[in-house]
Design a protein that fits this description.
The structure holds 2 protein chains of 2 kinds. By secondary structure, chain A is α/β, with parallel strands linked by helices. In chain A, 45% of the residues lie in helices and 20% in strands. Chain A contains 5 helices and 5 strands. Chain B is built from 3 helices and 8 strands; from the N terminus they run βαβββααββββ. Chain B has a single domain, classed as Chemotaxis protein chec, CATH 3.40.1550.10. Classes of the chains: A alpha/beta, B alpha+beta. The interface between A and B is large, with 40 and 38 residues. Strand 5 (100-103) of chain A pairs parallel with strand 1 of chain B, so a sheet runs across the interface.
Chain lengths: 120, 158
């Protein structure tokens, strides 16, 4: 299992990676992207099984990354890890083809709850 | 097809169109406890203006509701926060890591504020720089002692 973490914050990528290791899931490798274009390249070249993306990023928002991924016909599992938990954000994420949304700050438990149905 | 999943938060604030002192405090405590796991307690009074090497991080919520969220901390505390986020010792983190981590703290709190308002708004990217709190402001301000240093959180609704 290959997981791509997309976040412009190196600190947050570290936290997401560390939290993933604290869940019950094992046997995954993590790759990182620091912006949307970097993510698109790594989705094309690395073929991750799951993308965990921030919402609020410079140049390309997470929602625009998701739309470009889906427009290309790629059905990779895609979840947002974001502090923006408004109903509008959740609705837009869902309608754009996201599989789940985890709100920051998160715990290993909340991460597990989101990933269980995806990775089971 | 797997249903869309929204992972529960440890403490989910209820939505309304005003941010209270209590709701802001809940969001800040959530970050300090869940994300940073740093010991802290609330402080009363006004922020000190003579603290050297203060850093400020800010995000702006724009749209049908507008506000600026600012956090202040001595560089020493910002570095301690970065250590918690990176799970690294102080001496292996460079200044860019410290600014990144401090900016992400205000970004998370600001996103929670925006989510609580639940109106048609956008959240800016965080910016970080050297600045001190303005104790004459009438904005919503809360302070914490975090690892022995002051963390000031200020929400200016306008």
């Amino acid at each position: 299992m290959k997981i791509l973490i997309v976040d412009d914050s190196k600190a947050m990528r570290m936290i997401v990676c560390r939290t993933l290791k604290q869940t019950d899931f094992s046997g995954f490798t993590v790759i990182e992207a620091e912006n949307g274009m970097d993510a698109l390249n790594k989705i094309a070249t690395e073929s991750p099984d799951l993308v965990l993306s921030d919402w609020n990023m410079p140049e390309m928002k997470g929602i625009d990354l998701l739309k470009r991924v889906r427009d290309s016909g790629n059905n990779v599992r895609f979840g947002f890890i974001t502090s923006e938990s408004s109903l509008e954000t959740k609705k837009l994420a869902h309608e754009s083809g996201a599989d789940f949304l985890v709100t920051k700050p998160f715990t290993p438990g909340s991460m597990q709850a989101a990933l269980d149905p995806i990775l089971a | 097809m797997t249903p869309f999943i929204i992972a529960p938060r440890p403490s989910e604030p209820s939505g309304h169109d005003r941010i209270s002192h209590q709701s802001l405090a809940l969001m800040v405590q959530d970050v300090l406890t869940t994300m940073l796991e740093l010991p802290h307690h609330a402080l009363n009074g006004s922020p000190a203006t003579d603290v050297p090497d203060q850093l400020m991080a800010a995000v702006r919520v724009s749209g049908s509701w507008q506000a600026t969220l600012q956090i202040y901390a001595p560089e020493q505390l910002a570095r301690r926060i970065a250590c918690a986020m990176f799970a690294q010792a102080t001496d292996v983190l460079d200044d860019e890591d410290v600014l990144d981590a401090f900016g992400e703290v205000v970004n998370v709190i600001g996103g929670n504020v925006k989510g609580m308002i639940d109106q048609d708004c956008t959240l800016s990217l965080p910016c970080v720089g050297a600045a001190r709190p303005d104790p004459t402001s009438t904005s919503l301000m809360i302070m914490y002692d975090v690892c022995g240093a002051p963390l000031t959180v200020e929400l200016i609704q306008a």
